[in-house]
Design brief:
about 70 residues; alpha+beta; two-stranded antiparallel sheet; about 15% strand
């Protein structure tokens, strides 16, 4: 299990969130169950591929969003 929090050395930065997602799926196999929980800020951007009924894709906003996007 990996935990990223504002209170620890492993902060929820863009790089750490992406790294955590890659770690989660790295050895996944058919039939595996994976769990990802995010409790933080989010946002919306325009849906560019038409798969969202409301026309918006949801986003995660990392702690370093101003410098890392």
């Amino acid at each position: 299990m990996r935990v990223l929090t504002d209170d620890t050395a492993c902060k929820p930065t863009r790089a750490n969130i992406i790294g955590g997602m890659k770690w989660l799926v790295k050895n996944a196999a058919p039939g595996d169950s994976l769990f990802f929980h995010y409790s933080g800020h989010g946002g919306h951007v325009e849906d560019t591929d038409g798969d969202e009924a409301d026309g918006q894709d949801e986003t995660l906003i990392p702690i370093d969003y101003e410098s890392a996007g």
